[in-house]
Write a structure and sequence with these properties.
- With about 500 residues, the protein is of the alpha+beta class.
- The radius of gyration is 51 Å and the shape is rod-shaped.
- Helix 3 packs antiparallel against helix 4, helix 4 runs parallel beside helix 8 and helix 5 packs across helix 6.
- The chain is built from 8 helices and 14 strands.
- Strand 2 and strand 3 form a beta hairpin.
- The chain has a 6-stranded mixed beta sheet. A 6-stranded mixed beta sheet has the order 12-13-11-10-8-14.
- The chain folds into 3 domains: about 150 residues; about 100 residues, Orthogonal Bundle (Helix Hairpins), CATH 1.10.287.130; about 200 residues, Heat Shock Protein 90 (2-Layer Sandwich).
- About 25% of the residues are buried.
- Its EC number is 2.7.13.3.
Length: about 500
């Protein structure tokens, strides 16, 4: 392809060069002929107005001038010094109806040039009748020779050859890293994504392409490793309840008289329920990973929290302090699942109480879910959001956890443009959800009555502080160490 392009360029260059040489010859010839024509015209005018035979002066740099009779035997009536006593320059006459003739004479060594470009004018002179006045200029040897065209063609060929060599070498040096990248890419398989593209030191587009490809391969490798880990963890999580379910059924069948059928069925139902939760969480993660954007509507986050709390039957008491008018834009089902996962996690690990706070902070809506359990060590605050992560594996499985609740909650928060993280707390765990607050210009007005599943908090509940509150004392209790989750009062009980 490169050679074809160079060949095409060379052909075009050759044609242009030859055309330029021919055009240059034509322009030079035209200029010389114009000089001869002016000299012949001036000589004819002077001779017509009384000039007699003798030496004609040079005109406009033209030294070869003759006045020749047009009789049956043409003779020279007057001539310039170089043509004294010489035969007529030409016997050519203008065609009928014209008075000018252009001709070219070659092969006479007397003119000190291979050829002469001659221009003749027919004019009438008193006493001599009709005469021809000729002006001639020697033609440079190069104009009448193919040497210029051949020289230009040869130079074009040399230029094309040199350009082809330089282009071939430059393109080869440029594309050599691309060939190496192609070879490396062909060796990458779905089972081995560890290979990388060689990055040249040229710091050009090829180097940037190689760096971009390597970054893409890094992301693909991380994604593939995460997928493999996820499949392995999911298989392990599904195998555990299936194994337990099969074992119980096999024992009941092997010794039916020694087993309690109702108890066995209850245990099998628990295992099936756990399988159901795992599959449901896996399906939710698959939908989130697919990037499907569900329909979003303006929501009152406080009312949504109160609705979910009213529908739950928690293991421990839950108190909530909800500021009115905390509105966000989101999908109701997804945000409800996020809140349920946070409340379930807190209820699972709390020792005696769970606290929920809904408030605003700047341009964000904030939901805090706190418990008085063992808390989350600082080193594990990010790990708890990884899939199938349990800090207390035995306790989590015994409590029915799948290890995916916080993962799903964070993915939903990120999908809504928010954040979910573990915040500092003097006691227990404190999970913070931050979502973009719906701006006043975007608020459509009062929320429909169907969104109010639970009446709002009593008016005597104090408003939320503008920022994270410091530990304060609840009514009838000692000072709490839960941090921002503790309201000024006991909050609403659920």
């Amino acid at each position: 392809m490169t050679l074809a392009a160079v060949g095409l360029i060379g052909a075009v260059l050759l044609v242009v060069g030859i055309a330029a040489a021919v055009l240059a010859q034509h322009l030079i010839t035209s200029r010389l002929t114009a000089h001869a024509a002016r000299a012949a015209q001036d000589t004819a005018a002077a001779y017509r107005h009384g000039a007699t035979a003798g030496v004609l002066p040079a005109r406009d740099g033209v030294t070869l001038l003759q006045v020749v009779s047009t009789g049956r035997t043409p003779r020279v009536l007057a001539a310039s010094a170089p043509l004294q006593n010489r035969a007529p320059l030409s016997h050519s006459l203008p065609p009928s109806g014209r008075n000018r003739v252009d001709t070219r004479v070659c092969g006479d060594p007397a003119w000190q040039s291979d050829c002469l470009n001659i221009v003749g004018y027919r004019t009438a002179v008193p006493g001599h009748g009709t005469v021809m006045v000729y002006g001639a200029v020697p033609e440079p040897w190069a104009l009448g020779s193919p040497v210029p065209a051949v020289t230009v063609a040869g130079l074009c060929i040399v230029v094309v050859i040199v350009a082809a060599g330089v282009t071939w070498r430059a393109v080869g040096r440029t594309l050599r890293p691309v060939a190496q990248m192609e070879t490396a890419m062909s060796e990458i398989t779905s089972t081995d994504l560890s290979r990388r593209m060689p990055v040249p030191d040229s710091a050009d587009e090829v180097a940037r392409l190689a760096a971009t490809l390597n970054a893409t391969l890094d992301r693909l490798q991380r994604s593939a490793e995460q997928q493999r880990r996820f499949v392995a963890d999911a298989s392990h999580e599904l195998r555990t309840p299936l194994t337990a379910l099969r074992t119980r059924v096999e024992l009941a069948l092997a010794a039916p008289e020694e087993s309690d059928l109702l108890e066995t069925l209850r245990e099998c139902l628990d295992d099936a329920e756990r399988l159901h939760h795992i599959v449901e969480d896996l399906l939710a993660l698959a939908r989130l990973d697919a990037g499907v954007e569900p329909a979003r509507v303006p929501l009152d986050l406080g009312r949504l929290v109160e609705t979910e709390l009213a529908q739950r039957s928690p293991r421990l008491p839950v108190s909530a302090r909800v500021d009115p008018g905390v509105r966000v834009e989101g999908n109701r089902l997804q945000l409800a699942r996020l809140l349920v996962n946070l409340l379930t996690n807190a209820d699972r690990y709390a020792s005696g109480h769970v606290e929920v706070v809904v408030r605003t902070e700047g341009e964000e809506a904030v939901v805090e879910v706190c418990d008085d359990g063992p808390g989350i060590p600082s080193a594990d605050r990010e790990r708890v959001f990884q899939r199938f992560t349990r800090l207390d594996t035995a306790r989590s499985r015994a409590a029915g956890g799948t290890g995916l609740g916080l993962t799903i909650a964070r993915d939903i928060a990120v999908a809504h443009g928010g954040r979910l993280y573990v915040a500092d707390s003097l006691r227990g765990a404190r999970l913070m959800l931050r979502l973009p607050l719906l701006r006043d210009a975007d608020r459509p007005g009062p929320a429909p009555s169907s969104d109010r599943s639970v009446p709002p908090a009593p008016p005597e509940d104090p408003p939320a502080p503008p920022g994270p509150s410091r530990p304060v004392a609840a009514q009838g209790s000692q000072q709490s160490s839960w941090g921002a989750c503790q309201p000024d009062g006991p909050g609403r009980r659920f």
